[in-house]
């Protein structure tokens, strides 16, 4: 494993004690794109901060390519690239200079740094912007420059913290293509996100994290299959009592896998769709059906099943 996290805990002491990371264990294989999926405040960024030596753990161990990030932080930094949530490009330098100086910092000769910077500008379709300054770039282009700079010294692992935050849909897709292309270079990618589409599109494996703990870990496909249903029908009912007959009737419908109780009504999990909606409405109407929402099975569905709330809450 190229990234190994064992019993990681991070507690911030103060007027209000905050347990940001609460006993995380995970292992990332070489060449893998691994995602930490969860809402804001779940502990994703803190985990990345410890892995990239920006924060010290309260307890636990993190190894990057076999190197302890606490005991030998300077050595560990040579193995990692980091793209934080916010734009950290040097505004006084051109795009070329941002990448070129990064290479020099990591010990490249001037000739090597120039060659590597030009190669990355071409690879990330930024050659025409080489003499531009960060303030002249869109959010999507700036993010591509940050990724290019982060891998300039050929790290083993690239950490991306909310890489598509604030990007428009077109820029987000372009960023996804850039990240997926890193596989060809053998770079392992660990990213945090609260966008379920991003985790589904990019990641080989995903760990869903909340309140500093990993709730479940698997491939996106396996996590969605674990629901055992293709769709969820959430019924907002006027009455909260005496729903047992309705629950039994819904469970008996063809295509229904299960029925769960919600604070505002019932949730129907189903794998069939033909005629099912009208059947559900027909049976629920006498119980004061006020609203009905339909959700396709997704990674957010998995999160909702595990926590009872949406990723964006």
Describe this entry's structure for a reader:
This protein is of the alpha/beta class. The chain folds into two domains: 3-224, Rossmann fold (3-Layer(aba) Sandwich); 228-296, Alpha-Beta Plaits, CATH 3.30.70.120. Helix content is 32%, strand content 28%. It has helices at residues 44-51, 73-77, 95-105, 110-123, 139-150, 169-180, 196-202, 220-225, 244-251, 276-284, 299-307; strands at residues 3-12, 18-28, 33-37, 59-64, 67-68, 80-83, 157-161, 188-193, 205-210, 213-218, 231-237, 256-262, 265-270, 289-296. It has a six-stranded mixed beta sheet, with helices on both faces. Strands 2-1-4-5 form a four-stranded antiparallel beta sheet. A hairpin with a 2-residue loop joins strand 9 (205-210) and strand 10. The longest helix has 14 residues, at 110-123.
């Amino acid at each position: 494993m190229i990234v190994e996290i064992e019993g990681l805990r991070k507690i911030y002491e103060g007027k209000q004690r905050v347990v940001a990371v609460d006993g995380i264990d995970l292992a990332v294989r070489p060449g893998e794109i691994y995602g930490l999926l969860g809402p804001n405040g779940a502990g994703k960024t803190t985990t990345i901060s410890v892995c990239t030596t920006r924060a010290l753990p309260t307890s636990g161990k993190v190894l990057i390519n076999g190197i302890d990030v606490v005991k030998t932080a300077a050595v560990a930094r040579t193995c990692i690239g980091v793209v934080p949530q916010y734009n950290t490009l040097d505004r006084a330098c051109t795009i070329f200079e941002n990448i070129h100086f990064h290479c020099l910092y990591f010990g490249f000769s001037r000739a090597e740094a120039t060659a590597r910077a030009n190669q990355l500008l071409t690879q990330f379709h930024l050659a025409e912007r080489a003499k531009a300054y960060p303030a002249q770039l869109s959010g999507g282009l700036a993010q591509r420059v940050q990724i290019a700079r982060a891998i300039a010294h050929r790290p083993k692992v690239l950490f991306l913290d909310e890489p598509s935050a604030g990007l428009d849909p077109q820029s987000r897709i372009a960023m996804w293509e850039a990240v997926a292309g890193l596989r060809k270079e053998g770079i392992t990618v660990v990213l945090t996100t609260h966008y379920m589409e991003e985790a589904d599109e990019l990641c080989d494996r995903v760990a869903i994290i909340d309140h500093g703990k990993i709730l479940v870990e698997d491939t996106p496909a396996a996590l969605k299959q674990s629901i055992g249903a293709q769709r969820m029908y959430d019924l907002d009912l006027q009455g909260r009592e005496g729903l047992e007959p309705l629950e039994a009737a819904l469970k008996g419908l063809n295509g229904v896998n299960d029925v769960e109780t919600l604070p505002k009504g019932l949730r129907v999990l189903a794998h069939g769709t033909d005629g099912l909606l009208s059947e559900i409405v027909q049976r629920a109407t006498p119980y004061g059906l006020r609203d009905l929402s339909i959700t396709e099975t997704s990674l957010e569905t998995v999160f909702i099943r595990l926590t009872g709330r949406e990723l964006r809450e």
